[in-house]
Amino acid sequence: MAKDVLCEVNSCKFWANGNKCNASSIYVVSHSSHARTSTETDCKTFESKL
């Protein structure tokens, strides 16, 4: 398992300094059952800070 999860979405409540994600778990879904690029996926863990 990855030691550090990086994220550049600073509007997410789980975003921390250094582009770190501090969520206790990450949920990523795919637009297809065989995603080949990151654009074919979405992070469902995102929650707005606002």
Per-chain topology:
Layout: E1 15-16, E2 20-21, E3 28-30, E4 41-43
Antiparallel strand pairs: 1-2, 3-4
Pfam family, one: DUF1540
Domain DUF1540: 5-46
Organism: Paenibacillus hodogayensis
Structure description:
There is one protein chain. The chain is mainly β. The protein has strands spanning about 15, 20, 30, 40-45. It has a two-stranded antiparallel sheet. It has a two-stranded antiparallel ribbon with strand order 3-4. A hairpin with a 3-residue loop joins strand 1 (about 15) and strand 2. Pfam families: DUF1540. This is DUF1540 domain-containing protein.
Shape: globular
The assembly state of the depicted protein chains is single chain
Helical segment count: 0
Q: Using DSSP, what is the number of strands?
A: 4
Could you give the order of the helices and strands? EEEE
* Helix/sheet category: mainly beta
Mean pLDDT: 91
Widest β-sheet, arrangement of strands = 1-2
Report the span from N to C terminus: 30 Å
Strand content: 15-25%
Q: Main β-sheet, in a few words?
A: 2 strands, antiparallel
- Low-confidence segments: none
Number of domains: 1
Classify the helix fraction into a percent range. Answer: under 10%
Q: What Rg, in angstroms, do the CA atoms define?
A: 12 Å
